[in-house]
Amino acid sequence: MTPATAFKVLTGDQMATLEKDGSFAGAPVDLADGYVHLSTFDQLTETVDKHFVGQDDLHVAEVDLEALGDAVKWEPSRGGQLFPHLYAPLPLNAVVAYGPLHRDDVGKVKRPIAG
Fold it and tell me: Contact, 65 vs 72, CB < 8 A?
């Protein structure tokens, strides 16, 4: 069963664009690949550790996948795991919570609590 939400890691500038414009077309890697990369909560910490190492001012947006409808495709990626890929800009109205990236005591990325 697929989860109801997924997560997008954004830089501070990307988060500001999402808030200001009401949508986010994607990071450079998203634009190059043709879709916005999302992760499930279980995949989120590994995604941050692999693709955002050494970066500060990161934010996490929790996205309602149902609101995105057929634009979300579950496709194999890292290690054959299925990842949600968004074949459309990410609309702010599909974001149910967002905030600065924080980790718990064991280093796992926490869910955002602000909305």
Answer: yes
